[in-house]
Amino acid sequence: MKAATVEIEDKIGELLVVLDKDIQHIQESLLRLNELRSLLIKHNEADLGKLLESIQTEADSYRSHELKRESIRKELADALDCNLEQMTLSRLETVLPEEKKAQVTTKKLKLRALTKELKKEHLSTAMLLSNCARFNRQLLQSVFDLGKMEIVYYNSRGSTKQGMTETFVNLQF
């Protein structure tokens, strides 16, 4: 029994380190989203390209961290005799002594708050990108609309008359 308890305590220590790295990763993601929005607004394509490359590199390196977290989670699930799906921080809190329980609870609350903020920032970034795409589409359509644009005119009797006008840019090859 003592060997199992020591093994669980060791895994809890590893888990706390992994959770700290998760917290750091989410905080860095928040900073990257802010930087991404800033670079989009400034139309700084060079720095935007560099940022996207660094995000890809960090995502590749973070995969090993995710595998480590899942490995610890599986080992804790085996030690506590439960399914991997049931092995959550809340479940873990129920079996820990008060000192470790307080540490896990603190990390869980911090992760929950950061995750909520990350969702909000992600939504803001997605809305900015959507508005940029919509604006660019409308701008290109108004500038490069092939053919003539129809304009509806109303006369004094209220009946309509359609008029044709040239587009903003004449595309002749």
Describe the model.
This protein is mostly helical. It has helices at 2-42, 45-79, 89-95, 98-144; strands at 149-154, 160-165. The protein has one domain (2-145). The longest helix has 47 residues, at 98-144. 75% of the residues lie in helices and 7% in strands.
Q: Could you estimate the helical fraction of the residues in percent?
A: over 70%
Amino-to-carboxy terminus distance = 84 Å
Sheet with the most strands: spatial strand order: 1-2
Q: Domains counted in the coordinates: how many?
A: 1
Q: Characterize the largest beta sheet: strand count, sense, and whether it forms a barrel.
A: 2 strands, antiparallel
The string of secondary-structure elements, in order, is HHHHEE
Q: What global shape is seen?
A: elongated
Mean pLDDT: 85
Strand content: 5-15%
What is the rounded Rg? 28 Å
Total beta-strand segments? 2
Secondary-structure content class: mainly alpha
Low-confidence stretches: none
Helices, by number, come to 4
